[in-house]
Amino acid sequence: MKKAGHTVLITGGASGIGLALTERFVHEGNKVIVVGRDQKKLDAVKDKCPDIVAYVCDLRSEEETDSLAAKLNEKHSDLSVLVNNAAMQYLESFLDPQDGKIGERISEEIGLNLTSPIRLTAKLLPLLALREEAAIVNVSSGLAISPKKSAPVYCATKAGIHLFTKALRYQLESTQIRVFEIIPPLVDTEMTRGRGNGVKLSPRQLAEQFWHAYRRDRLEVPIGKVKLLKILKRIIPSVADALLKNS
After folding, report:
1. 7-245: which CATH topology?
2. How many alpha carbons lie under 13 Å from residue 171 in its C-beta half-sphere?
3. Residues assigned a catalytic role
4. Which residues, 6 or more positions from 52, have their beta carbon under 8 angstroms from its beta carbon?
5. What is the pLDDT of residues 184-202, one digit of tens each?
6. InterPro entries per the record (predicted)?
7. Model-level pTM?
């Protein structure tokens, strides 16, 4: 992929991994469109990067997702890179749920982490197909390889994104659209606050490792310790699973 001259949409691009990717794409000379739920966070990103375009959208809502896709088709016909990054994670015990709202949390998590990126991809593919060079970048997780017991729905959605990415890559392999997957380890974000005991990767470190792969068209991008996890999962799967089970 060329490093500059793209129009890039990044969901969840106002914080954490998404913000680091936003800053990297902007730094390299791309036009970036950031989508998020929090207007204050979007305003803060615009203060840092005045040239970005920002849209408020709750991607848990199919109606808002469809409205965003329609707006992008109308106003940003030069879109060439889609980064599906927005996600959420509930720590959930199915044996002992916190309250009577477990069904709502399941719907929210699946909606944001899995349904929305698939839906947005489907609706924006016709735009991407018009470009001479285009890309879809999906952010999954090392937990798609070996899950942890405290977040079963999150792990399931990320495993779904992992397989969706591979299948979509097969569909598009004869086109000019490259399909990347970022597979992060534990990264220092709001989602992981209070966990990791100081061993977390920074979002900027992740963005740097991804950029190295992106420029070289390496489509599956395991980050940091996920490289080791993939080897362990292939050779000694029980050890890989044990490492992540209680993380």
Report:
1. Rossmann fold (3.40.50)
2. 12
3. 154
4. 22, 26, 31, 32, 33, 34, 45, 46
5. 999 988 777 766 666 789 9
6. NAD(P)-bd_dom_sf, Sc_DH/Rdtase_CS, SDR_fam
7. 0.95
